[in-house]
TrEMBL record:
Cellular compartments per GO CC: nucleus; transcription preinitiation complex
Superkingdom: Eukaryota
GO biological process: transcription preinitiation complex assembly
Annotated organism of origin: Cuscuta epithymum
Any one GO MF annotation of this record: TBP-class protein binding
Name the UniProt record assigns to this protein: Transcription factor TFIIB cyclin-like domain-containing protein
Length: 113
């Protein structure tokens, strides 16, 4: 049996479904994960997926608490925060323009050190 490489996008549909996210939000998460691959984010794929979900839901009308994202993704809140801190500087480059055009990216929480 051959084991393949695990990628963040392998988990997205299940995580987003568990959180009750709509089709537009899921598409935005998928595109953000693909864009994030251009940067050297040294985190596990699951942590990256959870952090991107957290990032995008902050811009959504249907915000999701970090606790709920941690439960849905089985990633610890602290791990999500650390991955978010690594992704945050790249937010303007990885978030889909069509998704953020009518949203204020200033609503993204500044990562705590």
């Amino acid at each position: 049996m051959e084991m393949g490489t695990i990628h963040a996008e392998d988990y997205l549909r299940r995580f987003c479904s568990n959180l009750g996210m709509n089709h537009e939000e899921i598409k935005a998460v998928q595109e953000t994960v693909l864009m994030s691959k251009e940067f050297d984010i040294r985190r596990s794929p699951i942590s990256i997926a959870a952090a991107i979900i957290y990032m995008l839901t902050q811009l959504s009308d249907a915000k999701k608490p970090l606790k709920d994202i941690a439960l849905a993704t089985t990633v610890a809140e602290g791990t999500i925060k650390n991955a978010y801190r690594d992704l945050f500087p790249h937010a303007s480059k990885i978030l889909p323009e069509w998704y953020i055009k009518d949203k204020d990216t200033k609503n993204l929480s500044s990562p705590k050190a």
